[in-house]
Amino acid sequence: MPLALLALAIGAFGIGTTEFVIMGVLPQVANDFGVSVPTAGLLVTGYALGVMAGAPIMTALGTKVSRKRMLMVLMGLFVLGNLLSAVAPAFALMLAGRVVASLAHGAFFGIGSVVAAELVAPEKKAGAISMMFSGLTVANVVGVPLGTLVGQSAGWRVTFALVAALGVLGLFGVARLVPEMPRPVGVHLGHELAAFRNVQVLLAMAMTVLGFGGVFAAITYIAPMMTHVAGFADGSVTWLLVLFGLGMVGGNLVGGRYADRALLPMLYASLGGLALVLALFTVTAHHKVLAALTIALIGALGFATVPPLQKRVLDHAHGAPTLASAANIGAFNLGNALSAWLGGIVIAAGLGYTAPNWVGAFLAVSALLLAFLSAALERRERASGTVVAGAAGAVSGERPTAVRH
Fold this sequence. Notes:
Layout: H1 4-33, H2 37-40, H3 42-61, H4 67-87, H5 91-118, H6 125-153, H7 156-177, H8 189-194, H9 199-219, H10 222-230, H11 237-259, H12 263-284, H13 288-303, H14 306-316, H15 322-348, H16 355-383
C-alpha cells in the first residue's frame, strides 16, 4: 500500500479521536464552564451538525483546488478548531471550536476516499479506503481511551491540545506523502451535483444512514444498558467501548478486503448479520460475557459495511465522485443522530434500556432490503443494456446513453 495512505490514516485517527473523546471528558468540561451536562452535550450535537453541513459545503469549495491542497486546508481547519477548544475561555467559544473542527470531518473522509481509491489499482480500491478508515477505527481503541485518561488526570484542555498536535502531524504527512492530484479537467460543482441524480448513489447513502443507524441505536445507550441490565460497574463501560472499537478495526479491514472481491455479498452478509446480532442483544444484554461479545460483533459488522458502501458511491458517481463521497460521510452522522433520537423515544416510552436494540435491528433490516433493491435494479439495467451512471456523462455534460453489445 502507498505511504500516502498512512498520512490519510493519521488524519483519520486525529478526527476520530476528537469526535468521540468529548464523551469521555464531558463532565469535566461541564464543571469547568459551570454548565449542566445536557448543555455540555451540545458539544456533541454541534459537532455532528457541523459534519453534516460541512461535508457538502467544504467539498463544493474544494472543487476549485487540487485534492491534495484541499486535504491540507481541511487539516489546518481541524488543528485550528481543536486549538480553539483547548484554550477557549467560555463555553460558547469551545462550541465554536468544535464546529470549526467538524467542518473538516466529512470533506476529509470524502476527498480522502477518492484519493485513496486513485492511489491503487481498481481491484484494490475498497482495501485502500478501509486503510484510510482504519485511522478512525483505531482512534476508538487507542485515541479515545488515552484522551479520556489524559483529560481526567491532566485536564481536558491538554487532551484537545494533543489532538491538535495529531492534526499537525497529519497535515505534514499529507504535504509530504500525498502526491499532487490536479482536479479533473472540466469538472465543476454542477458535475458533482449531477451524481445525486443516480438512484444507486442515493440508495447507497440511504443504506449508510440506516445501516450505521442500526449500530448507534444500541451503542448510544450502551452505558445505561450495561450498568442497569448487564450489571457492569460504571468504570467497565470504557473497556466495553474498547471492545467495540476492536470490533470496528477488524470489521473495517475485512469489509475492505472482501468488498473488492464481492461487494454486494459483503453488504448482504454484514447488514444481515448486524440485524441478527442487534436483535439477539436484547437477550445477551442480560449476561456480562455474552453482552461483551455482542458489543464487539456490533462494531465488526457495522464497520464491515463502510468500505463497500463508500466504494459503491464512488463507483456509481465515477464522473464526479468527490461531493457524493463526502455526502456519504455526512450520511453516517445522520444515521447516528436518527438512531439516537429513535432510541431515546423507545426508552422514554418505558420499553426499557434494551429497546433501542430492536430499533437498531429494524434499521439494519431496512438497509438490507435496500441492498437487495439496489442489486435488483442493477441487474435489470444490465439486462436492458443501459449504463447506470447518474454522473457518467457529468464531465462531458452528456446524457447517459445505451451501450450496444
